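Components:
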Amino acid sequence: METNLSTGCATGLETLAQKYPRVHDLVARGREVIDQGFLPAKIFNDPQVYEVERERIFGKAWIYLGHVTELPNKHDYVLRNIADNPLIVTRGADGEIRAMLNACTHRGVQLARGDKGNAKMFRCPYHGWTFTNNGKLAGIPQKKEAYGDAINEAEWGLKQVPRLEIFQGMIFGNLDADAMPLDEYLGDMKWYLELLTKRSEGGLQVVGAPQRWIVNADWKLPADNFIGDSYHTQTAHQSIVELGMLPDNPFYAMSGDLIDAGNGHGMGLTGAPPGIPLPPYLGLPEEVVSSAKKRLSREQLQVMEKSNFFHATVFPNLSFLNIMTAKDAQSQLTPMITFRLWQPAGFGKIEIWSWCLVDADAPESYKKEGYEAYLRTFGISGTFEQDDAEVWQTSFSMTGGEMARNMNFNYQMGLTTQKPREDWPGPGRAYNLGYGEFPQRGWHRRWLQYMSGEI
Amino acid sequence: MKNIDQYDAGLHGQLSCFLNRESELLDNFQLKEWQATCVDESIRYVVPLRQTVMQEDGDGFSEDSHLQSDDWNALTMRIKRFDSRAAWSENPQTRLRHFVTNVRVGDRVAIGGNSKNYEATVKSNVLIYRSRGPSPDHDLLSAERIDTIRCVDGDIKLLRREVRIDSAVVGTHNFSFIF
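Structure:
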């Protein structure tokens, strides 16, 4: 058995049964069948499920807000979201990063109106209430005449995201004041994130601004894809194989390990396919590799040396890639990094946020090549992601009806055929098989735990 | 913008005709023919990323980030990909329609001594209708295109196309088409 779900969720399930009976049935059934490798199809397509996710997933889990390099200067701000909560993320005069609801406390009108900018104050365009970029109410027009002494400004500051914590440049927010610390939440996944974030002195750096676009699908499916689905490459991306830009061998994506990192996080680390020599350390430039050798542990280096492709999801909706890919059929493979957020934008709608990142210490030519390789393969125009978006959309549009109500999806891959590696140098459970749904099952168990109120 | 008294009906007609012909190829997914007959090998095809910014912060078009940035080899790769029956984003094919309007021709710069050979900037507005599968819903994308064209011996080719899209969050699931 990979894991056992705890039994301490009776209250959470009971509340679901009263308020959201359809979700209760799906979650209860999911808990029964996930360890056998099944999952109710309708968890991906029911408006009630999304209702509950807004509260129990996006109201409780740590959600990625952005990277510190997007706010390099004091008073910089960017607009972000946690599900349907629009946020201003600011760097204050004190250098601290904060996140707050982008709504005036008087009538809720939008305060910061650009996607990014630099502002010490946000002045409401409705009645002129003015807030500092750390959220304090600093001014009310004609305060004396309008309110006399009746109003206490200290009580009317902006609604703060109760928890904001940063892991190696990655900013996360949590709407639950009682949530476990980010450090504990990321758990073993930190070891894997460090393979990117800690490998060079300068860390990672965001290039420009994020692409944002709408895909009519459920936000969980891309999270499920990036965490461990090396199996889709041969079919969904067959056109890229035909272009000669992926190996013409259905087993090539199996040359690696899949990690169930616990707490719903997971990753795939794939090396060079048999007979196809690829450079060690993901083809990273010498500057980054030599720095990694000083900064990472022996075990981390051991894992990184043999890798050419990383794909991962941090529960619930942040995925990342660090893969070698080519910008066109004439070019060599180049390493590129992308972070992507599967932001629900209503039932059956994802707003995808896609960032390109580079190692800050890498040579400029490498950064440029990496950005071009990213643009050509992932993002709205990327040749890979075009086909992913297509299949994710139809998975949603095909399962809207009652026929899908009692249907289970199959998550059996690798369940009975594989045991965790005992010689794996890193944390979590590693499976030496590129085709297996270990990380996906781990992600969905975590989802079931949140949805049934166990966390 | 040219003064109205310098309006050159012949040139305007010629370039409008070019834009309409290439739109027909793009709508019909005759992309190889489009690339061969309408595109110069030095092509830069770019869709800059656009954000919502305050008026005082400019027009929101990013200088360092793109939604797409292609050269000849990249376009060749994209177009060749559609030869595959497994290019799922376009199999079955999107029903696509370009509506090209507001064609504005900038200054014409002669190449060499021959006044028939020239480069010019042509701006146009484009509304793209996309419909896929059985859904009656469609995506609409509005953009301004800023093209640089070169005409040599009556043969017009695109040197550069910049697509200035009218949305910050793009309302379609991918760009598996040419603006």
